């Protein structure tokens, strides 16, 4: 597969976890918007703001605005509408914000002309059972993820963020029309960093992931374009 081969519905969402717009733009400039999508998270958004998100959208990229809203329903409803006005492709909230918050967010987006996909983070991929116990959540990460994924679907959202290790069970529970976005993706041999519940790109898609969030394995690579092309090539049969 050539580095620039365009893909129908790119599966890789590159996490642009950079300190400022200039670094992010240098990284993005050689990328082809038909081979990946981009995720803007809290660090870059705090530094570069809505203007930079609009710039990425204007460059032709599908942007996942990953601000993981978790607040009272009215505040989250207004926040997802502001995200929609930036033209983003996907936006997220924390499922731990509860049914009323998720339903308010969904209803708010239904009023918008441009409606991004709305997904909910279940349990962060950096958390293990002991971390959950410490904040009063009984059961395994998997138990909690399954419960929150069911609540998210029932609240009318488009999908969840979860670890690929839980994707197969969730896929079985929710059926095919629910979006599973999985971070904690590590190509064989790459550093795990602070992630705990990880899988390779091909394993994750095999398990039922719809989209893969990949940050440092691509952004810290000596050749990001090659690493992206290798990941895309490993997914060509799916
Ligand atoms: O919502 C997310 O994207 C997210 C949820 C989660 O449970 N775990 C998780 O790692 N993420 C994000 O996915 C990205 C993973 O980056 P890397 O670990 O560098 O691949 C980061 O931008 C995280 O903020």
Characteristics of this structure?
alpha/beta; 15% strand; 10 helices; 238 residues; eight-stranded parallel β-barrel; TIM Barrel; 8 strands; binds orotidine-5'-monophosphate
Structural description of this entry:
Helix content is 43%, strand content 15%. With 238 residues, the chain is of the alpha/beta class. It has one domain (12-234): TIM Barrel, CATH 3.20.20.70. It has an eight-stranded parallel beta barrel with strand order 1-2-3-4-5-6-7-8, surrounded by six helices. Helix 3 packs parallel to helix 4 and helix 6 crosses helix 7 (164-174). It is globular and about 40 Å long. The model has no long low-confidence stretch (mean pLDDT 95). Bound molecules: orotidine-5'-monophosphate. The active site is at residues 66, 68, 71.
SSE topology sketch:
Layout: E1 12-15, H1 21-28, E2 37-40, H2 42-58, E3 63-69, H3 73-85, E4 90-94, H4 99-110, E5 117-121, H5 129-134, H6 141-154, E6 159-161, H7 164-174, E7 179-182, H8 201-206, E8 211-214, H9 216-219, H10 224-234
Parallel strand pairs: 1-2, 1-8, 2-3, 3-4, 4-5, 5-6, 6-7, 7-8
Helix pairs in contact: 3-4, 6-7
The structure holds orotidine-5'-monophosphate.
Low-confidence stretches: none
Bound molecules: orotidine-5'-monophosphate
Mean model confidence by pLDDT: 95
Percentage beta strand: 15-25%
Helix and strand element order: EHEHEHEHEHHEHEHEHH
The CATH level-2 architecture is identified as: Alpha-Beta Barrel
Q: Which sheet architecture does the biggest sheet show? A: 8 strands, parallel, barrel
* Structural class by SSE content: alpha/beta
- Shape call: globular
Q: How much helix is in the residues?
A: 40-55%
CATH superfamily: Aldolase class I
Instruction: Describe the strand arrangement of the main beta sheet, using strand numbers.
Output: 1-2-3-4-5-6-7-8
> What count of domains describes the coordinates?
1
CATH level-3 fold name: TIM Barrel
């Amino acid at each position: 597969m050539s580095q620039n081969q365009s893909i129908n519905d790119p599966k890789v969402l590159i996490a642009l976890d950079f300190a400022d717009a200039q670094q992010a733009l240098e990284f993005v400039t050689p990328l082809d918007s038909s081979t990946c999508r981009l995720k803007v998270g809290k660090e870059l958004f705090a530094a570069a703001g809505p203007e930079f998100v609009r710039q990425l959208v204007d460059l032709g990229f599908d942007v996942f605005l990953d601000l993981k809203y978790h607040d009272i329903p009215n505040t989250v409803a207004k926040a997802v509408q502001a995200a929609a006005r930036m033209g983003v492709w996907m936006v997220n909230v924390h499922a731990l914000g509860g049914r009323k918050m998720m339903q308010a967010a969904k209803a708010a987006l239904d009023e918008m002309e441009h409606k991004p996909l709305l997904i909910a983070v279940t349990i962060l991929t950096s958390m293990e059972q002991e971390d959950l116990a410490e904040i009063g959540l009984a059961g395994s990460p998997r138990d909690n993820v399954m419960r929150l994924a069911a609540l998210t679907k029932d609240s009318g959202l488009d999908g969840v963020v979860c670890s690929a290790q839980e994707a197969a069970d969730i896929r079985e529970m929710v059926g095919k029309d629910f979006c599973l976005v999985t971070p904690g993706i590590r190509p064989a041999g790459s550093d795990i960093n602070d992630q705990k519940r990880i899988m390779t790109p091909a394993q994750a898609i095999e398990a039922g992931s719809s989209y893969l969030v990949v940050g440092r394995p691509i952004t810290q690579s000596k050749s990001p374009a090659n690493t992206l092309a290798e990941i895309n090539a490993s997914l060509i049969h799916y």
